[in-house]
Amino acid sequence: MFSTQGMRFRGGDAVLAAGLVMITVQLVWKYGLVSRTYFRQDDFMFIARGLENPLSWDYLMRIDFGHLMPGAFAIQWAMGRLGVYNDVLAHAVTISLQAAAGLALLRLLRVLFGTRPAILIPLGFALLTPMTVPGLSWWAVVAETLPFQIALPMALASHVHYVRTGRFRHALAAAAWTVLGMVFFVKAPFIPVLALVLTIGWLGGVGALRRLWRGWVLYLAVLVPYAVVFFRQLFTSVQLTNETFSPELPSAGVALKSAWTLLTGSLIPTSLGGPWRWQPIGEDYALAATPPALMWVSGLVAVAAVAVSVWWRRRAWLAWAMLLGYFLLADVVPVMLGRVEVLGPDLSGFELRYVSSTAVLVAVVIGLAFVPVEGEERPWLRPAPRLTWLWVPVALAFAASSVWSVAAYADRPLGRNVKSYVTTGAQALARVPAGTVVLDTHVPEKVAFAAFFYGYARHSKVLGNTAPHLITWTERLAGPVPDPLIFDPQGRLRPVSIDGVTIPAKASCTPVGRQEVIFRLPAPIAPGEHVVQVSYLNGAPTVLNVRLGLAQSTVPAGKDLGRTFAPITGGGTELAIRAIGAGSCVGEIRIGTPVPADTGAPVPPQPLAG
Asked: Which end of the chain has fewer surrounding CB within 10 Å, N or C?
């Protein structure tokens, strides 16, 4: 008896050691990817909001397009105060959370199935699947989903202990882990639902529900306040569009196509090591682009796996039903309510961050479908098959496929070019004198899409917080602005030049008084928003009225030699100028769009490496 226990103990030690080695190896592997990433898109908005606001209820509890995530907002608030764009810290947090998620899943598998070699299969799936890789390359997704991937297995493990021992402290632990998940991710309220299915199917059935009623009352006491807060904030939080949320379901066709694509093009292929091919979104992110033929092959393999498990394993059908139900309610419904009409069914259907956190549940379901739960009576519908070694080629094929897919994802610049732009821009602001006037244009789309983030995609929001001194930001040039600068495509500051139509200066300047002086344009100007740059030589300060077609703009002009800028919305074939007050003498006139000048030394001279 002692000898047998010793053998089991040593075998359990070997399985535990193997699991820890697997977690460590995947951390080293994934760090190679994570260390090449940088902040992107939403990250700049979230960090800017954190710097703008105190750590208050209003700041933390704002729902961002359907996501209640005060924990993630707290992390962004802290990140802004720990170096603004401290990517080294972000990488360290990412890998630490990833390590904790792996350990949490290993704990759940050991608690649920016992410390047996079979648990290394679902663990290996969760560590290798490309389903989680795009989420690891996006800091906002990391801060939201990785804490949930820790909370879910920890809560379920505590619940399993509660069912088996009846000790209420385990129910308290499960509730606490669920609350932690809710603080970060909107899918966390489904944790008690998963616990309910586990209990009915594998942990005592209806009898356990009745016996442990206090635990279910506790879980309900956690869910109800969360639901009240969530729906109150959902309908009162002001979005970037300055509107509150109004739920709108997509058409049935769009909804079905999006859900089907998310299932067959994202969840199933990545559960088998796909998607094998990626569709780049800019340089630092990509969507799954599973080839149609491999989507069908993946679907057939998945159907075969489900059929085999249901044929041999008692209640395997319930495990797959639990996964499908979670997918529909937790993965599909939020997308239907939030973004499918904006993104379209194809874009949303191949977006892996919508299912990245589901990888943990897929791992648990693989275990439930093929491995007996610890202490489970009559786990097999038929005599247990002797197919132990069949897992070896299956696991090797999955591992090779996953490594291939992840390597294909990593075969792009990732955050290198965005980091170069941001660090170059920060260096530029640090080098120019305090008070320098900088035209506040939108950053390039590779940094943040203005169509999505509006004012938070402007340089003042993205780069302004990196400046060590005061910068004078202006969204439009108006009046005699002294030596304005503008960012070039590499993130350097250059003098502003007006690109468009030029009316050259004559041998001497043109006097302008109270009567309009007409300047014929060398080419017609189409209606639109323009900036008129007027060079002048004045004996005294004055005011100039500038007319383009029917549109007019009035701007001051200083004394002596200088230039003033008149923003105007119009078009036509002639420009008219008159002076209000003292007369003026006008030289070169330019009409067009502010752009970085080719002349003049850029600051810094060369872009910084990313």
From this structure: N
